[in-house]
Design a protein that fits this description.
The protein is α+β, with helices and mostly antiparallel strands and 864 residues long. The two termini are 50 Å apart. The chain is globular, with a radius of gyration of 28 Å. Strands 14, 21, 22, 26, 27, 28, 29, 32, 33, 34 and 35 form an eleven-stranded mixed sheet that branches. Strands 2, 4, 5, 6, 7 and 8 form a six-stranded mixed sheet that branches. The chain is built from 15 helices and 46 strands.
């Protein structure tokens, strides 16, 4: 065959520059139209030599082990592959891709943190510094790499040009243990002769005010420092290395204050043009830096992409509200910041305020709590300037601009810049019901707004923490919509670091000071279970067995901790629990006081995590361990039945979430028990008028629980309900993201009075996983989608659905449509994969790679 495989990729990274793995695994997709791989050959271009593996008989193409000696620090290797997919010869070679190691050993680092040396009050807002260093390169530049990170946040510049397009770098990790550095190719920014390297600095998570009840400052330290190492290779092979050290200088910049919650204040009158270019300084109080200490063993390369601007959105309406005051509606609740282009007299202050919704026609700021979400730009008076804040993000659909020095606002004067972790989009869904399609888009936007370096719970108010329970329920949806494996692998590493010695998993990671509910840390079901359940989800979706192995000890320690708490009786019926958080029946002031026994929830999750730990051990080849946790899961299941299932088959709590847990977690005894529970769940849904009666725990499960027990139409009724509480209620109210509460905005137009009222919160959007698998009909049947199931379940009056997913092997898709003649389905199977097509009323059909069309002459009745 003559077609090429796609170029290789490395680990879960968008490119191979600065990789922190000495033996990176390789992934490629087969040539279009290929069946499955029979063999492959990998070529490494290394130190001027071509090294080939020879023909390797293997069908593997995802995360294939590195075929040569491990990379050394800074080493560059070109990689390409060719494949055999049939009786003929090999394909053409793929295009070559380069992988380049970062600084793999602590001894590679000689840089130290540097920052402003002037006195500061650690308990107040502090004016951020800029740092800089002039230097001379003796010869032309062949290759240059900047390895850079910070205590706080940074944006680097070389000779007046911004380095990279990442935002809020280095992101948020458990800084004492892991601080990410990023490697940039800066060859084009340097030349022989005079050069300058500089950086803006910001407080960020490191020392800014962050967290509950007014926030805590200096969580990780009081310094604000840059740590950078510039390594240059010249045309004669010689090298120049420039590092942050005592030879650098620092000065306060034009940013007066900056905070993730507060926003940013920039005085353009204090700008210093050319501050990061060679030459004498014309203004600014530059002075020697203060040097600090950083253990280079804690510096790690990224496992996923950085936060960056991914989209620009113009306002859909601009309403003048008086002299210099405008209200802007961007038509979409988003996370990011505003870019403005403005001209006016020196000293004019333009203020930008942000909010997710309006109340009485004005910005509704009460849900922000103590997040001011306000940026200020003070004009220099020297002509038009374009500006955006550097070290803050806001959650907003609406913005108020005051102090605008004109009666009108020109087109393009204000633009919203959407920011989130720059993950590759991999999943799409749409159907004949426009409201359901909009619901799915709302889920996508909520993921975008809350996957900001870590998976957060809300992007607007004074919180934005990595809640473990939220991600646990949303991981199946997230891993369909975006390639988030690298990002979540990194975050799960921090979950393991923050895990207490007794196995307790914190409520949120990274851990920061919390209120009395969250401190000291206590074990909580559904939240702590992220340690055992989420690695399994990621393994199923991305096929990464090493990821599963890396996080196995964290999950095991968690299950062992719960086993200790439950004791020989195997019931986890003591201690503090959040239960079915935000059940709509819970009062606003007590979101955990729902209809479901909190300890029923805890015991059900105990069984679930023990079972998945057994599955994990089995996948890792640890048979004895798998047997141990399988027996434990059986014991917990039996204890659950004794305590919470009545002889009639009904549940003691008789709440929808109780039945959802028992059914989806397979905690009932045989088909008869499942039938009783399914019928009772359907009856409860009907009694509630097909309105939602579940919270964070039950909501991701209820449609599956109904579908799996023969109540598909009830599941569709629940999905398509528009009365509050329901998924579509918020859509009918104009929502463009998923709300934290079912009634964050009440039917009478007032805001929910609870202290937690976010309008961008992905947890309740976990239903999208059911949309993908059941309505759309596309699901993995083997890790990484090597085998797929195409099993659409039409119903509820929905007449077509279109689902597509970019699997590690390539595109998988299913479009089905119900007509008067029955159901037609068009299926796409990626090269190297197999699919099982299971249409209603038909026997399953196994198909190979390619496009296939099927027709079912009759389907189950479709409700109007």
């Amino acid at each position: 065959m003559s077609l090429q495989p796609a170029p290789v990729t490395f680990e879960h990274l968008p490119d191979g520059l600065g990789i922190g793995v000495a033996a990176p695994r390789l992934t490629w997709t087969l040539p279009p139209g290929a069946p499955s791989a029979l063999a492959h050959e990998i070529e490494l271009s290394r130190d001027g030599e071509l090294l080939r593996t020879g023909r390797i008989v293997s069908a593997e193409q995802v995360l294939v082990p590195w075929p040569g000696a491990p990379l050394t620090s800074r080493e560059r290797v070109g990689v390409r592959v060719r494949v055999w997919t049939g009786a003929g010869g090999p394909s053409r070679w793929s295009e070559s891709r380069t992988v380049e190691a970062g600084l793999l050993h602590p001894s590679d680092w000689s840089a130290v943190p540097v920052g402003g040396a002037w006195p500061e009050d650690p308990d107040s807002d502090r004016r951020p510094a800029r740092v800089r260093r002039d230097f001379t390169l003796p010869r032309p530049v062949v290759r240059a790499r900047l390895h850079v990170t910070a205590h706080g946040l940074y944006e680097a510049e070389i000779n007046g040009v911004r380095v990279g397009d990442d935002a809020l770098s280095p992101g948020w990790t458990v800084y004492p243990e892991r601080l990410r550095y990023r490697t940039h190719d800066v060859t084009a920014l340097l030349g022989a002769g005079a050069n300058t390297l500089g950086a803006w600095l910001g407080d960020g998570w490191y020392r800014g005010r962050f967290g509950f009840d007014g926030g805590t400052r200096n969580i990780y330290g009081t310094d604000q420092s840059l740590l950078a190492q510039l390594e240059v290779v010249h045309d004669d092979g010689s090298t120049t290395v420039l590092v942050t050290d005592a030879s650098w200088s620092a000065a306060p910049g034009p940013i007066l204050t900056s905070g993730l919650y507060e926003g940013e204040v920039h005085d353009a009158r204090l700008d210093e043009p050319g501050w990061s270019t060679p030459g004498p300084r014309t203004r600014g109080d530059w002075s020697p830096v203060r040097t600090g200490v950083r253990d280079p063993a804690t510096l790690v390369a990224p496992q996923g992409p950085p936060v960056r601007c991914t989209e620009e959105i113009a306002p859909v309406t601009v309403t003048r509200r008086g002299a210099g005051r405008f209200l802007l509606d961007f038509g979409q609740n988003l996370v990011g910041r505003l870019r403005i282009t403005v001209d006016g007299p020196a000293g004019t202050e333009v203020t930008l305020r942000h909010a997710e919704v309006l109340e009485d026609g004005e910005l509704a700021t009460r849900p922000l709590r103590e997040a001011h979400a306000t940026d200020r730009y003070i004009l220099a008076g020297d002509g038009p300037r374009t500006w955006q804040p550097r070290f803050t993000l806001h959650g907003f659909r609406y913005a108020e601009v005051t102090g605008w020095p004109a009666d009108e606002m020109a087109d393009g004067a204000v633009t919203a810049l959407v920011h989130h972790t720059g993950m590759r989009r991999t999943g799409w869904f749409a159907c004949s019901d426009e409201l359901v399609s909009r619901l799915h888009e709302n889920v996508v936007w909520s993921m975008r707004g809350n996957f900001v370096d870590i998976p957060t719970d809300c992007p607007a108010r004074d919180e934005r923490l990595g809640w473990t329970g939220d991600l646990q329920v949303f991981a199946p949806t997230a891993s369909f919509l975006y390639d988030c494996a690298g990002m979540l692998d990194s975050w799960l590493t921090d979950v393991g670091i923050e895990q207490l010695p007794d196995g307790t998993v914190p409520w949120y990671v990274p851990v920061i000071p919390g209120g009395p509910i969250w401190t000291p840390i206590r074990p909580g079901a559904a939240w702590g279970d992220v340690a055992a359940l989420t690695p399994w989800v990621l393994y199923q979706r991305f096929g990464d067995l090493d990821l599963l192995r890396r996080h196995f000890s964290t999950g095991r320690a968690w299950v062992d901790r719960v086993e200790q708490l439950a004791g020989p009786g195997r019931l986890w019926d003591t201690g503090f629990q959040l239960g079915d958080w935000l059940d709509p029946a819970a009062p606003p002031e007590d979101p955990g006081a729902g209809r479901t026994d909190r300890h029923l929830v805890a015991t059900a999750y105990f069984a679930r995590s023990a079972r998945h730990l057994s599955l994990t051990a089995g996948a890792l080849g640890e048979d004895a361990t798998a047997l141990h946790y399988g027996r434990l899961a059986d014991e917990v299941t039996e204890a659950f039945r004794r305590a919470y299932v009545l002889p009639s088959g009904l549940m003691t709590g008789d709440s929808p979430t109780a039945y959802c847990l028992a059914l989806v977690f397979d905690l009932l005894d045989g088909p008869e028990g499942r039938a009783v529970a399914g019928d009772r769940l359907a009856a409860l849904v009907e009694e509630d008028g097909a309105r939602i009666a579940t919270g964070f725990v039950g909501t991701p499960l209820i449609c599956d629980a109904l579908t799996d027990t023969g109540h598909l139409e009830t599941a569709y009724r629940l999905l398509r309900q528009t009365e509050c509480p329901s998924w579509l209620y918020s859509v009918t109210q104009g929502a463009t993201t998923v709300w934290e509460r079912w009634d964050s905005l009440r039917p009478d137009g007032t805001l929910n009075p609870g202290g937690m009222t976010s309008f961008n919160h992905y947890a309740l959007g976990a239903v999208a996983d059911w949309l993908h698998r059941v309505v759309g009909g596309l699901a993995p049947a083997a890790p990484g989608y090597r085998a797929l199931t195409f099993a659409p379940r039409p119903g509820g009056g929905i007449t077509w659905a279109d689902t597509r997913h970019e699997t590690p092997y390539g595109t998988a898709a299913l479009r089905w449509e119900v007509t008067g003649d029955g159901l037609t389905a068009r299926v796409t199977v990626p090269a190297g994969c197999t699919g099982s097509v299971e249409l209603p009323g038909q026997e399953p059909v196994t198909v190979g790679p390619g496009d296939h069309t099927f027709a079912a002459p009759a389907v189950a009745p479709v409700a109007a």
